[in-house]
């Protein structure tokens, strides 16, 4: 039986488990932490590596039409001028002059307090699962406090970006609750800058990349000239990206240093881009399911054509139901040939490909599936986390915490447990199996404590299988064990060959 928890409690439980069991730590914690930066602990880095490896295997190694690259994090500053990031990679920023806090104008909402058709001031709230509910409650409070008689109208939430110059001084800051301290929104460039070389002036200014994608565009000709690739083909990369987010939040969901897995799929200029776009949306969806995300938590959000960047033909996001609301997980964009054209113009180097059929040169178009490893990490943790009541062999009920992670990505695939620590025949056989399994899988050896407690420890970190070396093992030929499955907690006898076959099928 699963316990139902409020979404805030669920996030708290997950963050607490992540810390307690060594998945994720706040960066620089001994100095009070550093907002928007995180460290991955021993189990976290295994989980993260498995997500990356599954993506790389499925996206690059198991496809004939995609190749991988790794480009530098700091690139020539001209890359970011040509790509449009220097001029336009901005978020609308609002300052609260009283509290010195900063907000993203598109995540800050306000509403008029209207009683009997007369406006009695404004209320504000930061974006949440129930922004309108919060604004309504704030409006009711204003009415009560000011003893306004009459009927309060239902609030209409508006983004702060839509506030008029007359409204701005009247909207209370979410930090202080008082009006008069919020500034009009201004563009804030999210790229982190740095200086390259000994001089620290404008000529040495450079940037930490805010996306990995530009590496694929800038190296396009290098790959075409050396990689024996033919259209349609993709170039993929996994790597760190950096964005000076105004409001990093929701644990690792929106951070300032994160990891992206992006692929640029180049297609003929006359190709049917819509069907290629659709195929990639489906591919990404199926891949998420293959690593264990339930389809019930996934949905599609097709961006309105009117709101797309001028060069974009279409973008669809795969959304995920996080405990704090439905949010973007994976963006799949049809970007035309904008990026290659921009780099051709800025560098003076044509970015064309020669078409054998038409004997023509042209600039290919691109479909771009772009996803954050950290967002997948959080999605799999939240979907896998469960607390359930179970009855032990003495009839006592207890709550077990379990991470129902797919064997594909679980940090530990199998735990090897000798039934008794003091019985050398059991531990010797267990260690032999452990050493053998270690060659191919992440395995854990644990001989400390009661077997039930050892199972619980593995449940909590998502280990799909435990293998117990017991008396039947050593009394027989030594090649059968008790296999205990995490989700059903069912136990059965397996031979070593059956165990190896099972792992081979489940971990790919
Ligand atoms: N090249 C296109 C691009 O970077 P994006 O929508 O800005 O597009 C792609 O980012 C993906 O990267 C997002 O769907 C999300 O999964 C991840 N991402 C973006 N900003 C992030 C942040 N601040 N923290 C964690 N992940 C982020």
Q: Would you kindly provide a written description of the structure presented here, covering whatever features stand out?
A:
The structure is a single chain. The chain is α+β, with helices and mostly antiparallel strands and 508 residues long. The chain contains 14 helices and 26 strands. It has helices at residues 7-20, 42-61, 77-82, 85-88, 131-145, 213-218, 220-226, 273-290, 338-347, 373-384, 424-438, 451-461, 471-475, 496-506, and strands at residues 24-26, 38-40, 66-68, 90-95, 102-104, 108-115, 118-126, 158-159, 186-189, 193-195, 205-207, 233-242, 257-267, 298-302, 314-322, 325-336, 353-355, 360-362, 365-372, 385-391, 397-403, 414-418, 443-445, 465-469, 480-485, 491-495. Helix 2 (42-61) packs across helix 10 (373-384). It is globular. The site of glycyl-adenosine-5'-phosphate has 19 residues, from strand 13, strand 16, strand 19 and helix 10. Residues 211, 213, 243, 245, 254-255, 258, 260, 262, 328-331, 368, 370-372, 374-375 line the site of glycyl-adenosine-5'-phosphate.
Short description:
Helix content is 30%, strand content 29%.
Question: How would you summarize the topology of this molecule?
Answer:
Layout: H1 7-20, E1 24-26, E2 38-40, H2 42-61, E3 66-68, H3 77-82, H4 85-88, E4 90-95, E5 102-104, E6 108-115, E7 118-126, H5 131-145, E8 158-159, E9 186-189, E10 193-195, E11 205-207, H6 213-218, H7 220-226, E12 233-242, E13 257-267, H8 273-290, E14 298-302, E15 314-322, E16 325-336, H9 338-347, E17 353-355, E18 360-362, E19 365-372, H10 373-384, E20 385-391, E21 397-403, E22 414-418, H11 424-438, E23 443-445, H12 451-461, E24 465-469, H13 471-475, E25 480-485, E26 491-495, H14 496-506
Parallel strand pairs: 3-12, 22-23, 22-24
Antiparallel strand pairs: 1-2, 4-5, 4-9, 6-7, 6-8, 10-11, 12-13, 13-19, 14-15, 15-16, 16-19, 17-18, 20-21, 24-25, 25-26
Helix pairs in contact: 2-10
The structure holds glycyl-adenosine-5'-phosphate.
């Amino acid at each position: 039986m699963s316990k139902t928890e409020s979404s805030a409690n669920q996030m708290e439980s997950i963050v607490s488990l992540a810390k307690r069991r060594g998945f994720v730590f706040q960066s620089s914690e001994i100095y009070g932490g550093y907002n928007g930066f995180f460290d991955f602990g021993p189990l976290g880095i295994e989980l993260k590596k498995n997500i990356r490896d599954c993506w790389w295997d499925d996206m690059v190694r198991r496809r004939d039409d995609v190749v991988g690259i790794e480009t530098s994090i700091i690139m020539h500053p001209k890359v970011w001028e040509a790509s449009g990031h220097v001029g336009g990679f901005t978020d609308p920023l609002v300052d609260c002059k009283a509290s010195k806090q900063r907000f993203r104008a598109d995540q800050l909402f306000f509403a008029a307090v209207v009683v009997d058709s007369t406006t009695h001031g404004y209320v504000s709230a930061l974006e949440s699962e129930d922004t309108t509910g919060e604004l309504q409650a704030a409006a009711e409070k204003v009415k009560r406090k000011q003893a306004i008689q009459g009927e309060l109208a239902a609030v209409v939430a508006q983004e702060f970006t839509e506030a008029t110059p007359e409204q701005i001084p009247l909207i209370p800051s979410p930090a202080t609750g008082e009006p008069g301290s919020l500034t009009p929104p201004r563009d804030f460039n999210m790229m982190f800058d740095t200086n390259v070389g000994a001089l620290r002036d404008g000529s040495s200014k450079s940037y930490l990349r805010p996306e990995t994608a530009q590496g694929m565009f800038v190296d396009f000709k290098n790959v075409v000239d050396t990689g024996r690739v033919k259209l349609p083909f993709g170039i993929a990369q996994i790597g760190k990206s950096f964005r000076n987010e105004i409001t990093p939040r929701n644990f690792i969901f929106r951070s300032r240093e994160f990891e992206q897995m992006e692929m640029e799929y180049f297609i003929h200029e006359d190709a049917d881009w819509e069907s290629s776009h659709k195929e990639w949306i489906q591919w990404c969806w199926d891949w998420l399911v293959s690593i264990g995300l339930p389809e019930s938590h996934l949905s599609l959000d097709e961006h309105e054509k009117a709101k797309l960047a001028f060069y974009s033909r279409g973008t669809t996001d795969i959304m995920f139901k996080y405990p704090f609301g439905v949010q973007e997980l994976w963006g799949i964009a049809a970007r035309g040939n904008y990026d290659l054209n921009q780099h051709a113009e800025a560098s003076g180097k044509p970015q064309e490909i020669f078409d054998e059929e038409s004997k023509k040169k042209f600039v290919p178009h691109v479909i771009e599936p772009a996803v954050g490893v950290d967002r997948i990490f959080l999605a799999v943790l939240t979907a896998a986390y469960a607390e359930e009541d179970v009855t032990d062999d003495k009839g006592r009920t207890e709550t077990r915490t379990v991470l129902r992670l797919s064997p594909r990505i679980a940090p530990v695939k199998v735990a090897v447990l000798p039934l008794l620590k003091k019985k050398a025949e059991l531990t010797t056989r267990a260690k032999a199996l452990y050493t053998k399994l270690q060659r191919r899988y992440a395995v854990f050896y644990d001989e400390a404590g009661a077997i039930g407690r050892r199972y619980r420890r593995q449940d909590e970190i998502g280990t799909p299988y435990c293998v117990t070396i017991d008396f039947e093992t050593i009394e027989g030929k030594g090649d059968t064990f008790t296999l205990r499955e995490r989700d059903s907690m069912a136990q059965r006898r397996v031979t070593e060959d059956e165990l190896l076959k099972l792992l081979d099928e489940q971990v790919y």
